[in-house]
Known about the structure:
Chain A is of the alpha/beta class. Chain A has helices at residues 22-37, 53-56, 83-95, 115-120, 135-150, 154-167, 182-187, 215-221, 251-264, 269-272, 283-292, 301-306, 323-326, 333-346; strands spanning 4-11, 46-50, 75-79, 101-109, 190-192, 195-196, 205-214, 228-237, 275-277, 359-366, 372-379.
Amino acid sequence: MEKVAIIGVGQTKYERNKPETFAELVFEATSKALEDAGISKDDVDNVVSVSSDFWDGRTISSMAISDASNAYGKDITTVEGDGTFGALYGMMRILSGSFGVTLVCAHHKGTESNIKGITNCAFDPLVERKLGIDAISSAALQARRYMNRYGVSEEQLALVSVKNHGNAMRNPLALLPMDITVADVMGSRKVADPLKLLDCSPVTDGACTLVLAAERPAKKLCTNKKRVWLRGVGHCSDAYRLGDRDLSDTRALKDAARRAYAMAGINDPRADVDLAEVYDAFSYMELMWLEGLGFCGDGEAGEQMERGIFNFDGELPVNPSGGRLSAHPVQVAGLQAMAECVLQLRGEAGDRQLNTPETALVHGINGMCGQSHCVWILGK
Amino acid sequence: MGNRVGIIGVGQTHHAAKRLDASGVELISEAVTRALDDAQLTISDIDAIVIGNMDHFENINYVDMWAIDGLGACMKPVFKVTTGGTTGSTVGACGYYHAASGLFDVVLAVGWEKNSESDTQAAIATCANPTLERDPFAGAIGPLATEYSMYMKAFGATEEDSAIVAARDRNNALNNPYAHSRQAVTVEDVLNSPMLSYPIKFLDMCPRSDGSCAVIFASEEKAKKLCPKPAWVHTSVVRHDYTHFGDLEWKFMPTLERASAAAYKLAGISDPLNEFDVAELYLPCSTCGVKWMDSLWFCEHGGAPGLIRKGTFNMDGQLPINPSGGVISTNPIGATALIRIGEAAWQIMGKAGGRQIEGVKKALCTGFGGCSWTDLMILGADLP
Amino acid sequence: MGLYEDKRKRTHTPEGYELLAHESGHLEYDFNWHLGYYWSRFLAELRDNKRFMATKCPQCGTVYMLPRQVCGKCYVEMNDWVEVGPEGELEGFTIVRFPYVDPNNGGMKEVPFTSIWIALDGADTRLMHYCNEHDEKDLDVGMRMRAVWSEERTGSIHDVQYFEVIK
């Protein structure tokens, strides 16, 4: 496979009730990404935007940001889903030979909209929706199924929240840096059993932009220090109805991870991957996804979390940025995770910098209860 | 670097004002199963899937997740792309790039819409800036009607010119068993139909439909092995420039002009009117079928009425446009632009039945939508 | 049942069950869109000063009505504000005669209404707004128009009631 690199990243601060419009957020993230890459707007030959009509409350949500995403005169398209899928399409367009430099930009303003109604609309209109089910209640079902199957405790879930909010203390962009304990999580308001407030990610506003480049323009346009290679990717979706699958079974993630590892030449994920940003929309999800990614056996992540394996100073740091639990702009999240790994691999991650990582894994999900997954391997 | 890609199968539903017999997922399934049959494949031959539609028409969030059963996408790679009216062609381009990238060999691209499930104009109106542009926005028809009023003033085009286009497309649809609206009309019928939004009349305007279209793309090696006569993708070009409706140029169709110029250059086309054998164009109303001909470089600005009055674009003309009946006859919005690609592919593959044009070697397909955006794809019987 | 069977006219299943549709009933989605720096200022100027403020690109000089942060062509931020109008030239119009649902309130839009594109004096792009004429015979591209302001202005695009032809 021809090599494709990320040569620039730009992020806004992730906050609530940001006063900027969608377009202004995209312009901020995109300008920063172009500046980071050290390229001009004309070095970009195509744009993949990532947004959601539902969350923006606008049909053709990409139209609002067309000007602001440097789309003028360029070939552009829009992925509706997590940013990791947008980056995948951005890479495909380069590999096709038609383009050399793809700009991938995602935006989201969750605080302007009604998350319950919007996620309720992800469910089947005839039956499931009428039950009032939404992102949180369906996640609660999944969490309970997972905990029952493997004997995972609420305290083990809480460890994820403690770790990630603590990690966010080193990330000036995160919405919820917090120095908390397991007791704090256990004592937080119960939202939908077994999930408590601190098990859930916050509604967030923000935008993130990546600049991808084929090998030749990547080498021409920026220095080696800036380049982070996309070494492998895989995506896969499970069945739709909650009842059509075992919510504790991560088979779609395993399939996506297998493809990504094969492409990147990774045989032993635990040994070969130096850091991972996984999609912790809820605390229990981090445990499930770590198992699905092969970092430990099914049902073992809770116990490994207790041993500190995935801590910032552990054997395999997971979500050093603070994860989605600390900032969760939907659609943007996967791209934000990729941006964080780029900074880590470049050695530019400031206070949250890990010790010389070489290979990073980014994981994004789409749909409710992690129905669809996209796994990326990034390398220096 | 990158593979050449061919279309090896197409499937369409029977499009209608309301498909009472099928839910959205079943509609998708109808198109997908027909495409697989057309290509003589099974779902296990499909390596990746892409789908598109416009969310607010059916009020379903994460449509790619919801449609898994109809797409045959369980435990397969799938994601969604959407860009308004251009969604169908955006889906087509996405299917093409999947296969061209080398990551996937056989890719299923699906566009669909069940416009009967909602108020189409209300949903479309939400594309405009809610505070500043939504209220005076006259629905999808507004900008189109306004631009033709300017074109008539500037170049002496008439309502009769657009009526000729309307009659042409609608009569063509009589040869298309899948078309939604199949009625024989005369130019007089069109001129006498009720005025919707000056100068566009009822028979000038597209319907809204329930329907789906599925197109299977394959990388060169696979395409050659699986299909006796693939429709090869020569180029795909997209220009989605504008955000605000007031920014648009009106004397010509700017994105169409730029996209087609770029595409013709990439595909080595210097005389489009003569080099193309057929064109399936996204003309949401007949007035576009007049004005936009200029912007496809078929003639100078203002030259379109002359070509139309001569019959240049009729089935027996120099360059037949919309043998399928076009958008005026069938418009399930998320599928509409993909149907252009599917119909053009069938023309090249010799599978267009009663609407087949003889000896099609090169076909032009366009998509339209959003803030006067353009998608363009050129297909050919020979490898590019 | 063949794969290519045309099922459009079906009203019942083969076993005789009537084909049903499900009414969602009234659905509302509330949003709270922020207007940002540029549109907040634009609307305040309509409300307080009865004037149209546009932004001008420092690079290409294009004067944009509606104002916005970014010049799409040059991809630079615009911070020069220029007053345009209050008169301008009618560049295009349409009179909508078919009613459809108004997404603001779920009711039906009142028809006929006239949607116009007006190039305010000094602006390079057009503003979309209303006109009080509802007959095609009374409007022509090229006519001069002026804004008619609302008595009560709240910081909305409706602070301009409509544009009228200058006779």
